[in-house]
Amino acid sequence: MIIAILKETAPERRVCMTPDLLPRLKALGAEVWVESGAGVEAYLSDSDYARAGAELKPRSELLVSADLLISIQPLGFSELEKMKAEAWWVGVFQPLYQRPLVEKLLSLGLTSFSLDMIPRTTRAQAMDVLSSQATVAGYLAVLEAARRLPRFFPMLMTAAGSIAPAKVLVIGAGVAGLQAIATARRLGAVVDAFDTRPEVKEEVQSLGARFVDVEGAADASQAGGYAVEQTEEYKKRQAEKIAQYAAKADVIITTAQIPGRKAPLLITEEMVKAMKPGSVIVDLAAASGGNCALTENNKIVQYHGVTIVGQSNFPSEMPGDASRMFAKNVYNFLNLLINKEKGLHLNLDDDIVAGCCITHKGQIISGRVKEMFQNQMVKQ
Ligand code: NAD
């Protein structure tokens, strides 16, 4: 069995597998082929991979020969067409938003896995690329805001006078939000946080931030760790509270997402106008429409003196640790796909495999993707 590690295309700087894990992959009975230059942007050289037992090959050869191809970003249609019909592809391609890609995979009969669809269970935590990469995003979002803010984060007592700490508002206290809170606190800011899931209150408080309660959130306890759509009344109450806190904040970090849907709009144009000049918003939901009305994906916008950062691939800006965490997630996941005796083995009785297997021999496997296709057919 040949496992292929593909090089990403700029601006993506991460690599999906690191050399330290190659001996373990080989112990699963695989030959590991790595595309020349795959790790260069993450400061991992071809010789690092070769020393760890990889064969360095050109991309064209990997595409046609590999049994299992691994990437981070989606492959192009023309590349998918080059793969063997029985080949498997593991990547991160947001199938809930990428219907044409799923249709292409179906027509080619390929077996595909999208790691963003791994269920949020305790057993799956070690394979959860959304969590590992959200940790990087939450951390860098705060550093980005701190760098752009025209004032200090910490309280300072200096001979030139005292400086009050910056006020940071974090909306969405999931993985990225909690890391943003922790990072902002380490830099000395005063932090307030909102989330529709009241159960995160304790985690927020344990990081030294204040949790802003909004009464009447919809119950998300059966949604597997994901947020659910809120009632109009809740949204109105939440908007009033956010407006109050936004007007006082120096920095807002937004991370609120609802899988498969457009991100909820939480910061309106009016709220931005009411913010202090010089304030910074970093919108981590930029790729799915943004939590701020003025966010533009992968752009930095200035509006009434407020800087709105819509960077949606922070993990690529810290390719070293982001790649290391991603690779460990992938390695843990491959343990579910590779059986030493049988090689690649599709065990759909395993909820993690079934949850993120998108297509297999012309069929959709993931229940969530099937549901999305059915709903779209009903709407058409
Ligand atoms: P996410 O990226 O889908 O959303 C980010 C946060 O935004 C969530 O906390 C969500 O509740 C919040 N949010 C959504 N709509 C909102 C709104 N209108 N207003 C305010 N907040 C809103 O989620 P995530 O960070 O990937 O994960 C959320 C939670 O799921 C985590 O805190 C964790 O408890 C759980 N989780 C579990 C696993 C696992 O067990 N394998 C893996 C990942 C996450």
Describe this structure as you would to a colleague.
This protein has 380 residues and is of the alpha/beta class. It has 2 domains: 2-127 and 319-379, NAD(P)-binding Rossmann-like Domain (Rossmann fold, 3-Layer(aba) Sandwich), CATH 3.40.50; 134-312, Rossmann fold (3-Layer(aba) Sandwich). The chain contains 13 helices and 19 strands. The strands form 4 sheets. The protein has an 8-stranded mixed beta sheet. Strands 11-10-9-12-13-15-14 form a 7-stranded mixed beta sheet, with helices on both faces. Helix 10 links the parallel strand 12 (251-254) and strand 13 (280-283). The longest helix has 20 residues, at 129-148. The radius of gyration is 22 Å and the shape is globular. It starts with a strand and ends with a helix. The mean pLDDT is 94. It binds nicotinamide-adenine-dinucleotide.
CATH class of the largest domain: Alpha Beta
Strand line-up across the major sheet: 3-2-1-4-5-6-18-19
CATH superfamily of the largest domain: NAD(P)-binding Rossmann-like Domain
**Class by alpha and beta content:** alpha/beta
Specify Rg, calculated over alpha carbons. 22 Å
Reported CATH architecture of the largest domain: 3-Layer(aba) Sandwich
Query: What does the oligomeric state look like here?
Result: single chain
Q: What fraction of the residues are assigned to beta strands by DSSP?
A: 15-25%
Summarize the structure.
This protein has helices spanning 22-27, 46-51, 59-65, 77-82, 99-108, 129-148, 175-186, 201-206, 232-248, 269-273, 319-337, 351-356, 367-379; strands spanning 2-5, 31-35, 55-57, 68-70, 88-91, 111-114, 156-158, 161-163, 167-171, 190-194, 210-211, 251-254, 280-283, 300-303, 306-309, 338-339, 343-344, 357-360, 363-364. The protein has 380 residues and is α/β, with parallel strands linked by helices. Helix 6 (129-148) packs parallel to helix 7.
